[in-house]
Amino acid sequence: MARTTPMNLVELMVMKNDIRQVLEFLGKKGNFQFQNHKSDSSKVSDASRAGEAANPERDLFVKLQDARAFLNIDDIDSALVAKSRCSDENAFSAAEKFLSAVEELKKRQVIAADELKRVRESKEEAESFKNLKVPFSELDHLSFLSLKIGKIDPAVFDELSISVGNRAIIVPLGDDKSKIMAASSKKARFSLDTELKKFGFVPFEIPSDFQGVPDEVLQGLETRLSECQKSVDYIEEERKNMAKAHEELLRSLLASFAISSQIVDVQNNLESTSLVYRITGWIPSENCHSMMKDMDELTEGRIAIRVYNPFEVPSVINGTEQVPVRLKHGKLVGAFERMIFSYGSPVYGAIDPTPFVALFFTLLFGIMFGDAGQGFIFLLMGILMALKVIKVGGWNKFAPIFMAIGCSSMIMGLLTGEFFGNEEVLAPVARAVTGLFGEPHSPILHLMPDGSAHSIKTMFMFFGVTVGVGFVINSVGLVLNIINNLIMHKVPKALFGKNGLSGAVFFWYVVVMVIRIVACGHSIDLADGIIIGITLFLTMFSEPIHRLLEHEKPVLENGLFAAVIEAIVELLETLISYLSNSISFVRVGAFGLAHAVLGFIILTLSEMAGPAYLGVMLVGNAIVVVLEGMIVAIQVIRLQYYEFFSKFFNETGREFKPFSFENK
Question: How much is the CA Rg of the chain, to the nearest whole Å?
Fold first, then answer.
């Protein structure tokens, strides 16, 4: 049986000039987890805060990300980061130059957008008084817009526009810019008057009987609005051209500074002197020798390396640190790893339960969701996800699971004759198979009850098979618990207790005894009572026996009466748990039967629909694949967690999470 991947603790003494390339090497390998010391958490926190205050690479990375968002360029992914190199002086220079150009374009865009907004608001304000029958001289008292019309020296027009800035709009009313209109809000009119006087502005005398807004003013605002819009459009086109021309450079810089910023963060948290850095961390034993050799060559021998077995490490020996756990599998079994780690990590050195989880999940799903057609849908989805034809984010890594449950559902569908609820399509296959062993019939396994004695018997046999599968799953969990405790040198826990050898023997013996009584007509005899009594006694009093074997005093920690009460509670818990763990698998058969009935209902409704047959079939089967598929998956996970994992997951370990570069 496979166990968790062997690990080694590695201590590296790295020269200051080599630290960045060593950390870059470790991050790209993605096979090294830094050692954590709980006692040093406050120091690490302080160092981390210091690192945050002194990481120019991270500051540049953030600015580059802002530039990427401004230019509307797709973000980089971790794959690109992993292939890139750490930033150097040339990268700093290129980044500063690029960011300067982007910042200048940003400023121009903001100025142009603000100018466009102010001109548009002024034009709308002026147009609202176009047909107002009120003397122009009185508009200053009626409107929120302050208008000044007059003449200046054309030579100072540009200087005046710059001087008033965002406080007003200066609009030329003629080709030579000698006639202007100045528009501002009420609150800015006094500062506008001051600026106009500085540049020799001479106001025009508007006839006292002139009503509304002069056409020259409106025409000037319209012209100015058009110019501002052109300016905004030109800058937008410039932004798109910059994005197109510099996309590759920007993505390259982002990847380089993503690596550099993470290296600096790690470097700031390492123990160091003025010349040397100390790195300690965990690495899989199978990769240890080759990585140490590569680092020695990388630094040209300027690195000191020490390798420790896990149980030579003081923090592991005294229990303050757990050795990180890594599971190594192929693509199919590896796809089930997240199910393990979502419940908890196995303890280092224990049996790896992932292959069992993969087998049991596939088997149980197939029993509960037996349909060759619907199973083919899952298989096809898995294949398309594996080929990246269907992209569903992080779910693509579970493509092997979809293929596995698809195959198991198809096999169960062949046995029950179900093909999208139709039992006629696979009938020739069933007759061909059954004809090899006797009289041909279809389906091979008839789950749909029809009221006959044979169908009722078949249904109960099916429930018996699912309970038998549950017996196997429970037994495997018990065996794993016993072996794991023996590996960890916890012999009393392995031998005694509900999930120890005594509890397992009680469970197995009772099951065999029941089968013997039902199948062979035997009765309970004295030997049965003795074996059951001994195993239950060892299970009930497992705690005192454990203390006795470990030489812990007192053996009865809370006295005889408390020990008896605890033993009775342990007895009840043992009986109830084994009974419930076994009966719980009846739901597997119930879901399998319910699936067959549901398929029959959809087929019947489709036939009743007449011309809409195909539509009802498609909708009905789509609902079954999505909703019932989710329900069955949840039930299988529940059975794994509560009936299987609960047998041997008495304590959890620490998942191996190696240092690797990401887009952050």
Answer: 39
- The three state secondary structure string of 586-614 is HHHHHHHHHHHHHHHHHHHHHHHCHHHHH
Q: Which residue has the tokens 């200066």?
A: 170
Average pLDDT rounded to a whole number, residues 185-195: 77
Distances (CA, A) of 76 to 73, 80, 120, 248, 655: 9, 7, 39, 11, 27
pLDDT, tens digit, for every residue of 232-278? 999 999 999 999 999 999 999 999 999 999 999 999 889 999 899 99
In degrees to the nearest 10, what's the CA dihedral of 181, 186, 189, 191? -130
Contact 281, 32 (CB under 8 A): yes
Pairing of strands 145-151, 179-185: antiparallel
Q: Give the separation between CA 340 and CA 350, rounded to whole angstroms.
A: 13
pLDDT tens, 469-497?
999 999 999 999 999 999 888 899 999 98
Residue 439 CA to residue 373 CA, distance in Å, equals: 26
Contact 372, 414 (CB under 8 A): yes
φ/ψ of 271, rounded to 5, equals -70, 140
And the tokens for 546?
């454990």
Whether residue 377 is predicted with pLDDT greater than 90 in this model: the reply is yes
Six token digits for residue 257:
């500074």
- pLDDT tier at 79 (50, 70, 90 boundaries)? confident
The helix (run of H) or strand (run of E) holding residue 308 is: strand 303-308
